[in-house]
Design goal:
Blueprint: E1 8-14, E2 17-23, H1 29-39, H2 47-54, H3 79-95, H4 101-127, E3 131-133, H5 142-155, E4 158-160, H6 170-183
Parallel strand pairs: 3-4
Antiparallel strand pairs: 1-2
Helix pairs in contact: 1-3, 1-4, 2-4, 3-4, 4-5
């Protein structure tokens, strides 16, 4: 699950029961896309602008770090990657150098896609799964989609991704989940309130 607010690897035990295998320790993937887009001069939401710029750039021009997270091999950290992009842009500005924004966008997108794909594939292999589903706004990103599709294809994994037309539609995602919760007998009255920090495992 990759969005502006969340980055998680979840084991889907059934439609209404999940176990979190890994999650971000800081910035979510979509948040990192938006912040990197802003430093490159693109408006919010920035993910689509990073994606478009990446098509014109060299993804190998800038070497960006893949942060390691101690204590959990499936947790993510996008803060270091985001900071590296921001520092490159600011250093170029201070030195009066011309920044290759398209290539920096491409390098960032490639690194983010590698982080997401590597950990997801590793978790699936360890847990014995051969089916992966990706959801959230970042699932619209062409770099993430193509790399995950490629790596799943190598291993004979089935991959499910929403069509691009639905990747940014939170209403459709929430309604779909509500349908399965309803079938599972979950009900609430008008006193129910939103809780942004509620764990997926506690629902």
């Amino acid at each position: 699950m990759v969005s502006g607010g969340h980055t998680q690897i979840c084991e889907v035990l059934r439609y209404t029961k999940f176990r979190i295998i890994g999650k971000t320790r800081d910035d979510a993937a979509g948040e990192a896309f938006d912040k990197c887009a802003r430093v490159l001069g693109y408006p919010y939401p920035g993910g689509i602008h990073i994606d478009r710029a990446a098509q014109k750039g060299d993804p190998n021009k800038y070497k960006l770090p893949i942060p390691k997270v101690t204590g959990s091999e499936y947790d993510f950290s996008f803060s270091g990657l985001k900071t590296a992009v921001i520092n490159l842009a600011h250093n170029a500005e201070q030195k009066g150098e011309v920044l290759d924004g398209d290539s920096l966008a491409a390098s960032f997108q490639k690194t983010a896609a590698e982080m997401l794909t590597e950990k997801t594939i590793s978790a699936a292999k360890e847990l014995g799964y051969k089916t992966i589903a990706m959801a959230g706004g970042v699932s619209a990103n062409s770099g993430v989609r193509s790399l995950l599709e490629k790596e799943c294809g190598k291993r004979g994994f089935r991959l499910y991704m929403p069509p691009l037309s639905l990747c940014g539609d939170n209403g459709a995602m929430i309604a779909c989940q509500a349908y399965y919760d309803y079938l599972d007998g979950k009900r609430a009255d008008e006193s129910l309130n939103a809780l942004a920090t509620l764990s997926l495992e506690d629902i």
